[in-house]
């Protein structure tokens, strides 16, 4: 299954859109995008997961990295995860570390 | 008239040049065909490799093709190692004649190296140090020395010989000059391939050793407790796995049951598997369940709210010790989150402590796929997570839960490799399919695990393993009937008599 990840920046919000299957072979691509997010400036990180069909534990590992990198003052939103991905997040307790929502938060104007 | 002669001369010159060009093209074509043959064979060999053989086969072919195309009657191809000493020869060392042995000598190799190009020797009798070649059969008179160079380095020396003096003329010399470049390329490919092949074999051997060590981290044999049945299976997706299971007995007779799945795959996950497994054994007090000097010392700063299941008739007498044992999850979580924070590693772990006398299973489920209890009545219950995956968040509480097992009940813990097992069409096995396999009653834990294994195996078929697959099943046996009891005591009596 193919995997695609894109990063967009607007004001203090970074939006990462994930597409396909996030597993051990594709997780490094996701991590690369997270590494590009400037920590000081970004207050909200939005992970668009509507088209993410599968997330293995290697993907969850990148989520821990994301949480560590962004720090406690950055809100991490997970938008519209598919049932299987949400199940993985809930089962492993990762849903407690992020904010799971149906719609992306409004982007703050500077 | 002069003009006509001039024109004829020009024409003849052009024709000669054209003939020369055609001859050169023919040589280039033959050399290219020879190279193609060698490369094609190289690819065929790479598809079904015999370790270390490829270079030797390529050298053999290069030698045979050169002899055939030039009509040489004898010769030798010497391949030099990185220290410029002879590493291989065609014919092989043990088959070399005394004449061929001369062609593998350092003196001859040096001579060829100094020339750095194809050197035809019309008559060996005229060259002092080559005269020896004629002294013994097969009495070779002419010789063509072909250094095989790649990027200025002498890789090999090919020598072709013929009994007729002056046999190797300019045409053959030119041809072998082109051939030498093709031989150099093919040899270099073969050498690189052999190096890669040997490196990959070394890696495979290392991983095989790691696999053996990892196997040793798993309990073998599984516990044997009267009245209980334990069965496990473990199939790593790669040589080493991040999955693990464990069963161990505390000094008071309680049984530790663990199924874990370390995040990610491969060697990293396997190293952490060893760490998680050992931390749980040590922190649970498996090795020192009784606290020293009868103190009531507790592990500080850990809050474990105990959810009391109202359906449980009574709280087992060693509850405090069991909860202390389960604190291993909290301690392991903190250890990993604090000491290995940078690596972002974690594991989903189900850790239960079973009292084999009362059938009470006290557990923590740290983000693990919920184990299934298949009741003797056929109903199914799940042991849902009571906290997050272990190692993710420092200093977090885990809830302890209890469940009563009755005779005939089976607890099936497994890793997500079971529902995630993929077919050739990339279709997951799914939890629903697993649950459907539990509908039909099983007479033993082993028959249930076998049933699931068979189904998963046929689902995966020829597909590459997607994830590690692990299962651990525990069943409380049904009480023996009076008839069965008397049969066993008869057996015991007969064994005593024997």
Protein architecture, described:
The complex is a heterodimer of chains A (110) and B (498). With 110 residues, chain A is an alpha/beta fold. Chain A has one domain (3-101): 2-Layer Sandwich (Transcription Regulator spoIIAA). Chain A has helices at residues 27-36, 57-70, 83-91; strands at residues 3-10, 13-22, 44-55, 75-79, 99-101. In chain A, strands 1-2-3-4-5 form a 5-stranded mixed β-sheet. The mean pLDDT of chain A is 93. Chain B has 498 residues and is of the alpha+beta class. In chain B, 42% of the residues lie in helices and 19% in strands. Chain B has 12 helices and 15 strands. A 5-stranded antiparallel β-sheet of chain B has the order 2-1-5-4-3, with helices on both faces. Chain B has a 5-stranded antiparallel β-sheet with strand order 6-15-14-11-12, with helices on one face. A 5-stranded antiparallel β-sheet of chain B has the order 7-8-9-10-13. Mean pLDDT of chain B is 85; it is low at 289-313 and 491-498. The A-B interface holds A 1, 24, 27, 56-58, 60-62, 64-65, 68, 91-94, 96-97 and B 242, 261-266, 341, 344-346, 348, 367-370, 385, 387-389, 392-393, 426, 467.
